[in-house]
Design brief:
This protein is mostly helical. It is built from 16 helices and 4 strands. The radius of gyration is 20 Å and the shape is globular.
Length: 401
């Protein structure tokens, strides 16, 4: 059942959610550190921006692959351009507002290529990426809750096989910031973003003769609360909020490491033991496994994203879960979720941790992830007709996922 803001009910529910968010942020801030509580609020802001701007990666890539419409891809290039302008000077200096900061810079090898390719297929079958899964699940999409569950399962399986994948050939990590300096890295990155954007313009005009016109949205006072937001506003918001994450957490925004942690803790509650797996013997992962899940920054931000998306969906009058999921669509959610989780572990992250934050960190592995992930999306688009009538799985409002 959809509601409108005038009824007062969405406003009351959103106020309850806001109180829950603030109480949770205060609790983790007191129990651990104030910055951890603030990061839950940043996560909520990410959830609101993702939902109201319908900003995602899966549909943007699918639309370009199948229809040659590139507006979503160009918005991603704007997001990345703003991010590198903010990130590279801080990463080059090593500090931001007095706090030590590091980027997500990872090796480039077989695991990244295979993992990103699998993740790309999973995006199209599961119906969303890592951020898309969180904000659409938080927005009341019941099917995406299934995808999220099996995303977690796939992450655990990926962590079990992680050590074997790490034995395969790989190059050492490469950082554009270290190789070219902050200024040189920015120049190289902006040139690449511009080339990708120009390519989408060329392909779109070649197919359609002109560029798709963006919907005109009047951001009145109410629109800020109920949405929708322009896609470019979402791009700017995500870049700024990722920078806020860097300032508070000392590293960029990530999502999927928390899924592996949740799954591992759940597996141990059932009597399993993951401590002997190579992935969980790394110092940071081992410490996270021993500690409270609420001390994990990624977990706290993910919970914030879900709550923020729930608030946004409620204010928009669109929080109306439907549990009528066709069997083939359900199967795609299960298969896609497993591929998303498994692929993210092999590739050192997802569309956020590896693609968005990896490229924003100057890591060459982020660019490799982009190429392999896009190839996986191309394969996934071809597989979609076997699972979805007309190749679609998501309501129009969350088509950005």
């Amino acid at each position: 059942m959809n509601t409108t803001l005038e009824t007062g009910r969405p406003l009351v529910v959103s106020q309850v959610l806001a109180m829950l968010l603030l109480a949770g942020a205060l609790a983790v801030g007191i129990a651990f550190e104030a910055r951890v509580g603030l990061l839950m609020v940043v996560g909520a802001a990410l959830g609101v921006a993702l939902y109201h701007a319908a900003f995602g990666f899966t549909a943007a890539w699918r639309v370009f692959i199948s229809e040659r419409r590139g507006r979503g891809l160009r918005a991603q290039m704007v997001m990345l351009a703003i991010a590198v302008l903010l990130f590279f000077p801080a990463l080059g200096a090593g500090t931001l507002f007095g706090r030590e900061v590091t980027g997500f810079v990872a090796p480039i090898g077989v695991s990244v290529v295979v993992g990103a390719f699998l993740f790309g297929i999973g995006m199209q079958l599961g119906g969303g990426c890592a951020s898309g899964t969180l904000f659409t699940a938080g927005g009341g999409n019941a099917r995406m809750m299934i995808t999220l569950l099996f995303f977690i399962v796939g992450s655990v399986i990926g962590s079990a096989h992680f050590s074997w994948w790490m034995t395969l050939p790989a190059f050492q990590p490469v950082s554009l910031v270290q190789t070219f300096g902050a200024g040189g890295g920015i120049a190289v990155s902006l040139a690449l973003f511009g080339a990708i954007a120009a390519f989408t313009v060329f392909m779109e005009k070649r197919r359609h003769g002109q560029l798709e016109e963006a919907p005109r949205i009047n951001l009145s006072e109410r629109r800020w609360l109920t949405g929708p937001w322009p896609l470019l506003l979402g791009a700017v918001a995500l870049a700024l909020l990722n920078f806020a994450t860097l300032a508070l957490a000392g590293r960029p925004w990530g999502i999927t490491s928390a899924f592996a942690l949740w799954g591992a803790k759940g597996y141990e509650l059932l009597g399993g033991d993951v401590s002997g797996w190579g992935y969980w013997q790394a110092p940071g992962n081992a410490a996270a496994l021993r500690a409270s899940v609420w001390s994990d920054i990624t977990t706290v931000m993910n919970v914030g994203i879900i709550l923020g998306a729930m608030m946004a969906a409620t204010l928009a009058g669109r929080f109306a879960p439907s549990f009528r999921i066709p069997l083939r669509s359900l199967a795609a959610a299960v298969i896609g979720g497993l591929m998303l989780g498994y692929g993210a572990r092999l590739a050192f992250g997802c569309n956020i941790g590896a693609y968005f934050s990896g490229i924003s960190s100057g890591s060459l592995h982020g660019w490799v992830w982009l190429v392999a992930g896009f190839a996986g999306n191309m394969a996934g688009v071809r597989l979609r007709p076997f699972f979805f009538t007309g190749g679609r799985s998501q309501p129009a409002r969350v088509k950005g996922s």
